[in-house]
Amino acid sequence: MLKDKKIIVGVTGGIAAYKTPLLVRELVKAGAEVQVVMTRAAQQFVTPLTFSTVARRDVITEMFGEQPAATAQAWTQHIGLALWADVMMIAPATAHTIAKLAHGFADDFLSTLVLALRCPLLIAPSMDVDMYLNPTTQQNLASLKEAGYFLLPPDEGELASGLTGAGRLPEIETLIKAAEELLDRVHQDLRDKNILVTAGPTYEPIDPVRFIGNSSSGKMGFALAHAAALRGANVTLVAGPVQLRTPRNVRRIDVRTARDMYDAVHREFDQAHALIMAAAVADYTVAQPATQKIKREQQSGDTLTLTLSKNPDILRSLGERKTHQVIVGFALETDNGVANAQAKAKAKHADMIVLNNPSEEGSGFHTDTNRVTFVYPDGAIEELPLLPKFDVAMKILDRIQALMRA
Ligand code: PMT
Question: Closest residue (by CA) to atom 13 of ligand 1?
């Protein structure tokens, strides 16, 4: 798995840095090409010479390295390396580096490189237990996870400070297994493919301050966009109003109403090789939204009647327009799921429908997991177990890849 793989190992200034040369040695022994990048603080714990000896390559410690600062090579080395790698790991990752990465700082080689990276990045936090559990560190880690980086939680046990708790760098075998799993899961098999994804709810205005919406968080659609980008696709994500960070290397178009989403998706559709409609689009909109806030005092009686009109069915309209595109829709069903999804696949000319049920534990809105069934227009079905939404996204992309080939 590691043979001939190009791996960047980032080392930051924590006591666990003393273990990282062993990680590098094992990666090299397994046949990987390893480029080590160290922060200044890391060099307080282990010397670059140790790493260059085990990696059999010069270690990068400075933004401008050996070359004169004015050379083109010095300016673009971080970009070249970012494109070179199959995977990057930061082990150990200190609270300081995690905070920098979470906020997009680029004040040294390591942080600049991470901003330019296209391949998966595995971050192994290691620090004292209180620093790790500090809400700021946890928030920064959550933010990195949301941005599409992979986190390997620290082990619990005795720490260098003498305290006991979470914060130890996992064993070398665990780090290597995590890198192998990532390389196994993420192939660049969608390079040059344009994938269009929709995510989140739509909001239909009632008046300038109120709307009709739904509970979609956007997590399913964002997981799809993230997974497709990691697999090398050019991803356009049309997102309804959600509170999520845009995954790395994803072009995002924000929309609010179903009509906005319809316009955006139709604009992008011709260039797409595949469309995945994970958004929970409102089927109805308020026929005539009020131009001023509706005031309670001005209403007679105890009820307020809103007249709704049908929104366009985006998926169906694109199914009718498709030329070469693979089209995947979702179906959110609480009863008669398979039959309804089969009907949707046919009516909307979809190549596949991803059926999920919001009343099942761990599925549907807001959850980090989903249990889905793939339903095909010819009646075939494929049931998946409960999985993280990222893994569901990977499975959907596997099927799309097969449908594109067919
Ligand atoms: O965002 P999360 O919190 O992660 O939740 C994920 C999810 C539950 C929203 C997602 O997994 C999901 O099921 N999305 C589709 C929800 C939905 O609108 O299902 P539906 O069965 O009503 O619609 C069928 C398909 O037609 C969907 O692909 C939908 O995007 C599309 N549609 C629906 C209405 C409409 N006017 N135009 C459409 O294109």
Answer: 332
Q: In whole angstroms, give the CA distance from residue 291 to residue 75.
A: 54
Sheet holding 352-356, edge to edge: 250-254, 234-239, 194-199, 274-277, 326-332, 352-356, 372-375, 381-383
Ligand 1 neighbourhood includes 277 CB (under 6 angstroms): yes
Q: What is the pLDDT of residue 63?
A: 85
Of all protein residues, the one whose alpha carbon is nearest to atom 33 of ligand 1 is: 281
Residue-wise pLDDT tens digits, 110-124: 999 999 998 999 999
User: pLDDT tens digits for 17-72?
Assistant: 999 999 999 999 999 999 999 999 999 999 999 999 999 999 999 987 665 555 55
- Give 198 Cα–ligand 1 centroid separation in angstroms: 9
Preceding omega of 92 cis (within 30 degrees of 0): yes
Q: Which amino acid is at 216?
A: S
Angle (nearest 5°) at CA 90 between 88 and 94: 160
Q: Find the length of the chain.
A: 406
What's the 199 CA to ligand 1 centre distance in angstroms?
8
285-333, pLDDT tens digit by residue? 999 999 999 998 888 889 999 999 999 999 999 999 999 999 999 999 9
- The residue to mutate among 311, 315, 321, 370, having the most atoms of ligand 1 within 8 angstroms of its beta carbon, is 315
Catalytic residue list: 214
For tokens 């709704």, the residue is 308
Indicate whether residue 216 lines ligand 1 (CB < 6 A): yes
First to last CA, the chain: 28
